[in-house]
Amino acid sequence: MALIEDWISSLQQVLGKEELLVSSVRVGVFYTAVQISSGHVGVAFTPRDLSDAVCCPKTAAAGPPAGRMAGRPGWEIADYARSQSVLRRAVGVAALNAISALAMAHYGVPEGELCPGLDALEAAEIGRDDRVTMVGAFVPFIKALRHRVEDLWVVDKHSGALKPEERSCWVPLEDANKFLAQASVLIISGSALVEGGIDELLAASCRARRVVLAGPTASPWPPPFFRVGIHILGGIRARDNQRLLALVGEGASGYIFEEAAEKISIIKQGSVTANSTSVPQSLCC
Fold first, then answer.
1. Domain range spanning residue 30?
2. Under DSSP, is residue 92 helix (H, G, I), strand (E, B) or coil?
3. How many CA atoms lie within 13 A of 60 on its CB side?
4. Would you call 59 exposed, middle or buried from its count of C-beta atoms within 10 A (0-12, 13-18, 19+)?
């Protein structure tokens, strides 16, 4: 969890004197959302393969304390990102994204550029000679890249996440390192911040010339992510905080976040050419 630790530490360095409280927490079927007292909202992927999802006192105690999070200090809830419980981590990462939104509102994007409306896939400037490894089945990205790059490998727990005609791209988790090592471009789902393993993914892909973290969960305070070699953060920025909370709480997937959030790309200075003209893509990844 080295990257998570650095994310928390970096935010505390710039906002440590802020007395933040959690205003609202929504744990939806697809996403989790946290609003802090500044009004900012962050979201994170809600894990669904829960081996411990049994309604009993023991498993309930390991999860986030339902009914007791609103009103708690924001830093306390953000600390859940360190938890052994994956559902607690989802709440913690959502809180970190909310605090990150506040930090960027105060301080902008150190060492980077925020590009509203720019799709992460276009920002990555992927060419026909690239060998792309994708961690997590980004449906719009697969459609855009298949047959347009030298190789496309999709690492995912489930081959069923890909359409039948895309299954030749599928790589099981146990074979991931082989294809991470061959990638010239790496695209990682922001869900890795919740499900774990992002440090190992980055270490295994040291040859990649371009590394992208994408999806609504990929909306963090950028400096610690730039330091570990991520070039592009393709996330979201809330436009209507209350609507975004409502959508998450009512089980929305990222496909309809456009009602309440805008797509953004945060690009590390000097890594790519920022271009404001984007190829339309969903926020769902």
1. 2-107
2. helix
3. 6
4. middle
103 and 136 in a single domain? The answer is no
pTM of the model: 0.92
Number of neighbouring beta carbons within 10 Å of residue 224: 19
Cross-sheet strand order for the sheet of 31-36: 22-27, 31-36, 41-45
Residue 270 CB neighbours (<10 A): 9
**139 and 234 part of one domain:** yes
C-alpha to C-alpha distance for 115 and 92, rounded to whole angstroms? 26
**pLDDT tens for each residue of 270-285:** 887 644 333 334 444 4
Number of domains in the chain: 2
> Do both 182 and 249 map to the same domain?
yes
Does any domain span residue 275?
no
Residue 261's closest CA among 231, 233, 235? 235
Amino acid letter, 274: A
CB count within 10 Å of CB 82 equals 13
Q: Among residues 82, 107, 132, which one ends one of the domains? A: 107
Do 100 and 121 lie in one domain? The reply is no
Whether 183 and 212 have beta carbons less than 8 Å apart is answered as no
Kindly tell me the sign of the dihedral angle through the C-alpha atoms of 143, 148, 149, 151: positive
Tens of pLDDT along 181-224? 999 999 999 999 999 999 999 999 989 999 999 999 999 999 99
pLDDT < 70 positions in the chain:
50-61, 273-285
Cα 153–chain centre separation: 20
CA dist., res. 255 & res. 264, Å (int): 15
